[in-house]
Specification:
- Helix 2 runs antiparallel to helix 3 (40-53).
- The chain has helices spanning 4-14, 26-33, 40-53, 60-67, 72-77, 79-82, 86-101, 110-134, 146-150; strands at 153-155, 161-163.
- It starts with a helix and ends in an 8-residue tail after the last strand.
- A two-stranded antiparallel sheet has the order 1-2.
- It is mainly alpha-helical.
- The chain has two domains: 4-53, no CATH class; 60-133.
- The longest helix has 25 residues, at 110-134.
- It is built from nine helices and two strands, in the order αααααααααββ.
């Protein structure tokens, strides 16, 4: 091609309308629109136009199932992971993405997958933090609290100590 830069600028300006839309999706779009194209900038322009025509929404739980590994939600709920600092969780997130997600995503969609995964991860962490904060405490009541006082032995008129009873004046 004699003027690859001019072609790529034209392609970027006119957008996806100039890209033919094959039935098969992104890969077929590339194949049908890359015939004779060798200039790297034109190749990237065609890839970008095809990605706009065929945006990808990732189902990370399904990717984990197909990889036969824990979902990212399950990883975050794991006691060992949930107790880590935010910085360590970020490292675990990056490793999970590299090992589980990136290995199963078309190479041309890695950036989109990472962006979606990071957003998905933030959403899950926020939900888990909110649910943890909203859960009632199952710990034993502290000594001196109203609930522990109700279960202590009290002396009732007549001199008999009975568990859980309160003097007439306290009723």
């Amino acid at each position: 091609m004699k003027y690859p830069l001019a072609f790529s600028c034209l392609l970027l300006v006119t957008g996806c309308e100039k890209i033919s839309q094959p039935v098969g999706g992104y890969d077929d779009c590339l194949l049908s629109n890359m015939k004779g194209v060798t200039a790297p900038n034109v190749i990237e322009a065609v890839k970008g136009a095809c990605k706009q025509k065929y945006p990808k929404e990732f189902d990370f739980a399904e990717i984990a199932r197909s990889a036969n590994v824990m979902s990212w939600t399950e990883v975050l709920k794991d006691k060992e992971v949930s107790s880590k600092t935010a910085a360590i969780k970020k490292e675990i997130e990056s490793a999970y993405f590299a090992d589980v997600i990136q290995a199963r995503v078309h190479p041309d969609y890695i950036v989109e997958a990472r962006t979606q995964f990071e957003s998905y991860s933030r959403k899950i962490m926020k939900e888990l933090n909110n649910s943890t904060l909203a859960e009632p405490s199952l710990s034993k009541p502290e000594a001196g609290s109203a609930s522990s006082a109700a279960k202590t032995k009290t002396v009732v008129p007549g001199g008999n100590a009975q568990p859980g009873s309160q003097p007439d004046a306290a009723r």
